């Protein structure tokens, strides 16, 4: 039985603000992370660093539900933010490549746990009949941070390529984040969380065929994100020859759909159409646009912004449909299931380097985009065969 209390508008709007700050702290450095790592690591090592971050993140998701049950979601949120502050400070101050890699791995693994805390806060204040509308608003505002972050990041990096400035900005974001959590949720009443063992959790998830299909769709989507976030900025900078200020403009235009279309799509999913059709359309748009990228070789800002914008129109559509479907079918007590759903993001960082490594055995760098497009098209099967919620 799912628990859907009456929505608390003040809490929801507060969480929207917090999620915007949270996303901004992630997004400002994310597109330059791989370039920062390239200062002391070769591309293969960078892939291993991301994979190590994913492995630690999966372990974090396994233990996070137990921590949240033991000390509560509010206390866990405060502790996670404080640890993240320390890790980001280390990235700013450290000079040893080994220390920097270790800090990067840990902070990469911790970031999604903060998102899990916010998901629990939001799920506890969401009405079952308004999941699409509330999730659409929440996701749209959150993603608007991703819209402005690339431009901010490129300005912070500047002509001197000082990538650490982006971590200074990310660190600064965490102080208002911490204050708003402290100010608004000290009396948060945790639901009675389920606490299955890992074997029970796997059985619980696998017993629901629609969840399995949704998890598969999300793994494909997150693999697309993971590959594009790591490799497309490097491609634009090193192969096409764009400066970081130009890349910032391209990425800002590219991310417009996340801020513009997800809220109305959430309302549409509530009132008119089911999630599966729009999810499938999103996968098709992503796949075709990504596969077309090798056809572009000239250094045209508008052309690159246009093709990448098209990929994200598809991704934004698929993402919000996956989010809405999941939160329509999961209880706010199921922190372990929610954590498992978010683990798919970490799994994608194992798959993305494999696509690159295997792909380069058979083709050249530009045509890796075609391979990613083909992988993305696999999302059509779970999208079309999943049972609609309407």
Question: Can you characterise this structure?
Answer:
With 390 residues, the chain is mainly α. It has one domain (9-385): Growth Hormone, Chain: A. It has 17 helices and no strands. The protein has helices at 9-30, 33-37, 43-71, 73-93, 97-123, 131-157, 164-184, 198-206, 209-240, 244-254, 256-260, 262-271, 275-291, 301-329, 335-359, 368-377, 380-385. The chain is globular. The model is unreliable at 1-5 (pLDDT under 50).
The name of the CATH superfamily reads: MFS general substrate transporter like domains
Number of strands: 0
Distance between the termini: 18 Å
User: Unreliable segments (pLDDT under 50, ≥5 consecutive)?
Assistant: 1-5
Mean pLDDT: 85
Judging by the overall fold, what is the CATH architecture? Up-down Bundle
Number of domains: 1
Helix content: over 70%
Number of helical segments with 4 or more residues: 17
| Alpha-beta content class | mainly alpha
Radius of gyration: 20 Å
Descriptive tags:
single chain; 390 residues; mainly alpha; Growth Hormone, Chain: A; 78% helix; 0% strand
Compact summary:
This protein has 17 helices and no strands. The protein is mainly α and 390 residues long.
């Amino acid at each position: 039985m799912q628990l859907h209390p009456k929505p608390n508008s003040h809490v929801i709007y507060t969480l929207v603000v917090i999620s915007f700050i949270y996303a901004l702290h992630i997004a400002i450095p994310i597109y330059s992370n791989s370039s920062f790592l390239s200062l002391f690591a070769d591309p293969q090592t960078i892939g291993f660093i991301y994979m190590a971050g994913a492995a630690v993140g999966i372990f974090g998701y396994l233990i996070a539900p137990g921590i949240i049950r033991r000390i509560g979601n509010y206390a866990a949120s405060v502790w996670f933010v404080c640890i993240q502050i320390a890790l980001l400070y280390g990235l700013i101050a450290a000079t040893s490549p080994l220390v920097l890699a270790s800090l990067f791995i840990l902070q990469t693994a911790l970031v999604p746990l903060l998102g899990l805390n916010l998901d629990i806060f939001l799920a506890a204040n969401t009405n079952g009949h308004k999941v699409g509308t509330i999730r659409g608003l929440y996701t749209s505002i959150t993603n608007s941070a991703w819209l402005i972050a690339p431009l901010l990041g490129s300005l912070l990096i500047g002509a001197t390529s000082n990538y650490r400035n982006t971590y200074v900005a990310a660190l600064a974001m965490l102080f208002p984040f911490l204050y708003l959590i402290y100010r608004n949720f000290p009396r948060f009443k945790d639901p009675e969380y389920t606490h299955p063992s890992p074997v029970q959790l796997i059985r619980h998830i696998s017993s629901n065929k629609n969840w399995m299909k949704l998890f598969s769709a999300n793994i494909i989507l997150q693999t697309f994100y993971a590959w594009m976030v790591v490799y497309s900025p490097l491609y634009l900078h090193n192969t096409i020859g764009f400066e970081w200020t130009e890349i910032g403009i391209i990425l800002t235009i590219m991310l417009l759909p996340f801020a513009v279309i997800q809220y109305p799509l959430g309302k549409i999913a509530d009132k008119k159409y089911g999630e599966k059709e729009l999810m499938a359309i999103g996968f098709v748009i992503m796949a075709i646009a990504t596969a077309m990228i090798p056809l572009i070789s000239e250094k045209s800002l508008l052309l690159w912004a246009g093709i990448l914008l098209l990929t994200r129109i598809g991704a934004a559509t698929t993402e919000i449909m996956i989010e809405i479907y999941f939160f329509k079918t999961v209880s706010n007590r199921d922190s372990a299931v929610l954590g498992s759903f978010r683990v798919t993001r970490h799994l994608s960082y194992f798959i993305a380097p494999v696509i690159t490594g295997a792909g380069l055995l058979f083709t050249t760098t530009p045509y890796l985009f075609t391979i990613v497009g083909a992988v993305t098209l696999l999302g059509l099967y779970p999208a079309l065969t999943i049972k609609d919620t309407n």
